[in-house]
Amino acid sequence: MTEHMSDPTAPRAPDGDAGLLYGGPADPGEETRTLGLLYPPAGRHQDYTSMQLAFVGGVAEAATAHGYDLLLSPARSGTDPSFRRMMTGLRRVDGVVVMEIRREDDRVDHLARTGFPYIAIGRNRTADEAGWVDLDFAGLAGSCVQHLADLGHRRIAFVNRSEELFDSGYGFARLGQEGYTQAMADLGLVPHAYLCGDDLASGEAALERILNEEPATTSLVTMNEAALEGVYRGLNRHGRSVPRDFSVVGVAASPWAEQVTPQLTAAEIPAKEMARIAVDLMMKRLTSPGSPPRHILLKPLITLRASTGQCRPVPGSEPEPEFPEFPGLDVDF
């Protein structure tokens, strides 16, 4: 039975969800044949990035294949009016796919407490109670570091996402930096991580900071594909040729990796595959609500392109070789 806010006998939401009501799983005859997608825009101007639009398209395509429509909400929190409209009063969706998961995310907390069917693309502790699909961002960042180290690089920087996203606890930004830092520590190298806005100018500014602070840097790992072209511009302005003088590797979808010159060596972000998996998990959740949640962690291989090469140390950055001394040995020629 669907509950209306005007019904005085309708059950209230759990404490902490004042004003939010949930009608419980719909009866078969009450299905909306619509899925919700909770996906706040991450662009600099509060718009959807190209990568985000790829996920929206992927979820919509997968939902259509199962005979479902898609309702998109830009809600960032459980108090967002868009979230409240989707979750209150007359039921508008049968289940929700949640994206841009933060480590502390009240949207996920509310869905878990009320038992509303949801699947996450991304993860946190609460999302473990439901199904999710995610990339192993920590493992991918570590693999990127190892790839550069195998090429002889020892001064490796990390270009992350924006300060706003990082501080808000977005999982991929935090996990990527943790993976980079751990990989550098395992190799006995000093990490240098930089937060960077999602645009060309920010990428150029980040590269400027890197070379000002560590002029001997010969490579970087990036998880900020929107800033990639700016990074390349900054390198060119400093006379650093890629990959002859500087190597770049990252986690990026192939359209971004292939549109720069030289093309980026990168681990793929398989947006369409992740969207399909999420919708498949949702269908399982709706048809078999008592089944245990599935957690799918993807770790794509790094595709070698043209942006990485053997390390060529910056002139003057390497210490002069030391020759051993032999005390008491007097040799005349």
Automatic annotation (TrEMBL):
Keywords of the record: DNA-binding, Transcription, Transcription regulation
Pfam families to which the protein is assigned, alphabetical: Peripla_BP_3 (PF13377)
Ribosomal protein found in the keyword field: no
Domain Transcriptional regulator LacI/GalR-like sensor: 145-308
Region (Disordered): 1-26, 312-333
Keyword field contains Transcription regulation: yes
Source organism, top-level taxon: Bacteria
Record protein name field: Transcriptional regulator LacI/GalR-like sensor domain-containing protein
Organism listed in the record: Streptomyces graminofaciens
